[in-house]
């Protein structure tokens, strides 16, 4: 039956609609993919698929001139008289014969350099010709996996809803979109998606959009996470060598220069491959370039191949990009990935200017029923025909999706997974009703992943229950969860419990309500500068118990939501009762005469003096975050805000403590923060984090409510960037109840310097320079200077960082090394 559906689909695709169709091969009969096919002097074009098949939509019968263009082969121009559709036209392309004149060979100056200089000098003019346009846009993405294991980190992977076979091989993503776009350089975009299709997903709202496909080689750099230098950048000769492979005439009798692009230094963020430049106009004719993964600091990626083809219109004399493809291979831990994204731009309309308000903050929207288009629609409008593999995947996954989302199937799977086993009370239990979209989870009595150690509780571990209902999530984004957490400390012999209720109202402004309460141990610093894992290791192996805790009994509620697409607001009301805690154990793994420090951060040698007196109060707090210039994508299943990194992020906070058992504990706190990443192009990124605050009536408040700063005495770093931590500062040495100002600056050169240093460039690391400063009243400022190497590791596993730190305060200087293991914050 499945084969019958596939045959029917192929027949419908082949014998319908106003199209010129056929297969393109070389002289040996080998199919050619990514051949550009277009109607002469128009921007109506398409591309061939991996089997050499193509489909070109033509609006009317009559005489047409069709151009077949493929890099390395002679361009063919064919005059056709079409009486009816479909019209079958197979093509054989012959290899291009490049010529290289003796004059160029004998030239003292590298002839390729002369062409590149002309292209650089003319790129502003050529870029301006395509600066503003309207166009039809098509995108198709496919992502495959090979050798996917049955389990990862002990968790079953399964067949990914029918995507992979028993060998762990298959297509795990296939999607298409058709849209109309309006674009203005450098980054103004308005896209209306007409049709969207995702294999195995009946919602069908693809994440393929034009905003992720804009790679303009007339710019100096292209963003692939790292800034990759264009072969015709202003400073391109600092990074590239060039070789003129030869020249040929295109169908318009224009001479095209084929130039090989060669990296001067292996570790630099550069392309390699070929760029084709049109003589006289010096416009880009085509690109066929590779980017190695380590040059983007994406070690999981082996290589990424980018191809672009441009077409020429004699009427307006503009070279415009008509097709683009992006292919990659990647892998880690023996798992191999490869993918390909194909894009077609057609029916250009170039504009001198757009009217005001053409571009708004909404950059992508979907037409109604864009995900409901049938096979006939797609076969009519799809510019690149599906391969047999892709067509099979659509049919297979649609069938799998229908079966696996039926109530009968879901109930059978749930029945199997919901079986209560004899050891479930100890190891945990999970129940799920997939058809009603409800689940229940019990962590078990031996939740060893939560096991940790501190000197107040000794060994302690968690258990808990949780319930989730997401029945309305798919349509409106509503979801509800209720959870409890039980924590038992073996040394202090105390069970503490917390509970919270969470509800998200929608997926447009993401309004959420959380109600919470219970009893737990809290770090004095609510930002928790030391993780449970790091503290456990530091305490048991080095007898450094840096984590300082108090007991908090509490009840409260938080409400937050987006206001527009630039503003986020959150408000919290919470009652708290605080009680000091004392060490209850001196257990350690090592033999040492050292004793643990007390739980009083102010008096570490005094085990019997608490850091504060027991008390209670109520807190009301409001928090606001502003991201200027945000854009957004309007999807039927939710709104996605797109951050504009050209502007800083501002946050403001106000906290009021009242209704205390003693008025001395009451205060107000006003805070502000500025975060900004300054993009220095290929020279790296400067991260800036500035924070300030002031207390009102805070002279006699509890030490719990002081402003505490994120110090570090473990010499371990757990975050990707150190923009919120002082790397050598003792944890509570500068806590204040007055005013404060802290500044964190960190520049990552993204390899700009390191790539040029012999031997060190083999590490493929990045240089990180940092400055950190803290000012509080009655003390001299605390200052740190850091220099380090990031992106260190073995092979494709680049998760390490190493920093040398020099600190200064009150005339006391300290030097140290911080070893960064970025995976630790994930494990926590």
Automatic annotation (TrEMBL):
> What does the record give under GO molecular function?
carboxypeptidase activity
In terms of InterPro entries, this protein maps to:
CarboxyPept-like_regulatory, DUF5686
* Keyword line: Carboxypeptidase, Hydrolase, Protease, Signal
Q: Which domain of life is it from?
A: Bacteria
* Entry keyword Hydrolase: yes
Signal peptide feature range: 1-18
The record's annotation in Pfam families points to: CarbopepD_reg_2, DUF5686
Enumerate the SUPFAM superfamilies for this protein.
Carboxypeptidase regulatory domain-like
Q: What is this protein called?
A: Carboxypeptidase-like regulatory domain-containing protein
**Biological source species:** Flavobacterium franklandianum
């Amino acid at each position: 039956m499945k084969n019958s559906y596939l045959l029917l689909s192929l027949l419908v695709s082949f014998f319908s609609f106003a199209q010129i169709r056929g297969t393109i091969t070389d002289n040996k009969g080998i199919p050619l993919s990514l051949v550009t096919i277009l109607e002469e002097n128009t921007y109506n074009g398409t591309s061939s698929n991996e089997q050499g098949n193509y489909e070109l939509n033509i609006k009317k019968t009559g005489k047409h001139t069709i151009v077949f263009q493929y890099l390395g082969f002679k361009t063919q121009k064919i005059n056709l008289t079409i009486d009816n559709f479909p019209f079958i036209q197979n093509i054989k392309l012959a290899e291009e014969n490049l010529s290289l004149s003796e004059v160029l060979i004998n030239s003292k100056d590298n002839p390729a350099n002369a062409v590149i200089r002309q292209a650089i000098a003319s790129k502003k003019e050529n870029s301006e010709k395509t600066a503003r346009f309207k166009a039809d846009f098509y995108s198709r993405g496919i992502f495959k996996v090979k050798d996917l294991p049955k389990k990862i980190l002990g968790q079953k992977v399964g067949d990914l809803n029918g995507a992979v076979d028993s060998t762990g091989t298959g297509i795990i993503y296939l999607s298409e979109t058709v849209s109309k776009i309006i674009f203005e350089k450098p980054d103004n975009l308005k896209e209306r998606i007409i049709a969207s299709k995702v294999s195995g997903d009946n919602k069908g709202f693809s994440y393929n959009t034009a905003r992720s496909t804009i790679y303009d080689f007339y710019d100096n750099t292209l963003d692939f996470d790292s800034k990759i230098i264009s072969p015709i950048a202003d400073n391109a000769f600092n990074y590239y060598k060039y070789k003129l492979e030869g020249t040929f005439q295109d169908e318009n009798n224009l001479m095209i220069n084929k130039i090989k692009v060669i990296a001067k230094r292996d570790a630099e963020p550069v392309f390699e491959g070929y760029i084709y430049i049109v003589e006289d106009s010096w416009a880009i004719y085509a690109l066929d370039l590779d980017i190695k993964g380590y040059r983007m600091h994406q070690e999981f990626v082996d290589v990424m191949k980018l191809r672009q083809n441009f077409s020429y219109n004699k009427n307006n004399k503009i070279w415009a990009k008509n097709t683009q493809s992006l292919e990659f291979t990647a892998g880690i831990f023996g798992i191999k990935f490869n993918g390909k994204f194909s894009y077609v731009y057609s029916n250009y309309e170039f504009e001198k200017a757009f009217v005001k308000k053409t571009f708004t903050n909404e950059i992508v929207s979907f037409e109604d029923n864009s995900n409901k288009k049938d096979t006939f629609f797609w076969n009519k409008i799809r510019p690149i025909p599906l391969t047999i593999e892709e067509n099979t995947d659509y049919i297979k996954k649609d069938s799998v999706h229908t079966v696996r989302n039926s109530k009968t199937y879901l109930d059978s799977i749930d029945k199997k997974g919901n079986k209560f086993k004899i050891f479930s009370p100890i190891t945990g239990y999970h129940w799920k009703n997939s058809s009603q979209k409800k689940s229940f989870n019990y962590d078990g009595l031996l939740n060893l992943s939560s096991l940790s150690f501190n000197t107040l509780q000794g060994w302690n571990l968690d258990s808990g229950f949780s319930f989730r209902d997401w029945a309305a999530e798919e349509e409106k984004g509503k979801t509800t969860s209720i959870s409890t957490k039980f924590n038992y400390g073996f040394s202090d012999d105390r069970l503490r419990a917390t509970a919270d209720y969470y509800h998200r109202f929608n997926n447009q402004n993401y309004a959420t309500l959380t109600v919470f309460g219970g009893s737990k141990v809290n770090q004095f610093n609510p930002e928790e500068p030391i993780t449970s894992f790091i503290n456990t290791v530091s305490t048991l192996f080095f007898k450094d118990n840096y984590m300082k805790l108090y007991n908090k009994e509490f009840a409260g509620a938080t409400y937050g939501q987006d206001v527009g697409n630039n503003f986020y607001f959150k408000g919290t009301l919470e009652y708290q009762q605080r009680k000091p805690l004392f060490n209850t154990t001196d257990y350690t793994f090592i033999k040492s005469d050292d004793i643990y420090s007390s739980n009083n951060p102010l008096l570490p040698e005094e085990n019997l003096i608490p850091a504060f007196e027991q008390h209670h109060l109520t807190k009301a707090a409001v928090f606001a975050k502003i991201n200027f210039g945000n854009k957004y994508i309007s999807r039927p299943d939710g709104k996605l805000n797109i951050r504009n990194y050209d502007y800083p992020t501002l946050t403001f906070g106000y906290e009021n403590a009242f209704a205390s058992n003693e008025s001395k504990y009451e205060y107000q706190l006003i805070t502000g923060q500025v975060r900004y990443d300054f993009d220095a192009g290929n020279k790296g990124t400067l991260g800036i984090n500035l924070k300030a605050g002031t207390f009102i009536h805070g002279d006699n408040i509890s030490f719990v409510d002081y402003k505490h700063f994120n110090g570090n005495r473990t010499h371990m770093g757990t975050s990707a960037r150190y923009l919120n931590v002082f790397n050598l500062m003792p944890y509570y040495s500068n806590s204040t109840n007055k005013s404060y100002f802290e500044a964190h600056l960190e520049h990552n050169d993204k390899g700009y310097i390191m790539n040029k240093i012999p031997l060190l460039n083999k590490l493929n690391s990045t240089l990180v320079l940092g400055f950190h400063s803290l000012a509080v009243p009655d003390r001299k400022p605390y200052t740190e200077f850091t220099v380090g190497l990031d992106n260190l590791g073995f092979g494709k596993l680049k998760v390490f960082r190493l920093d040398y730190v020099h600190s200064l305060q009150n005339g006391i200087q300290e030097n140290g090394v911080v070893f960064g293991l970025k995976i630790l914050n994930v494990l926590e």
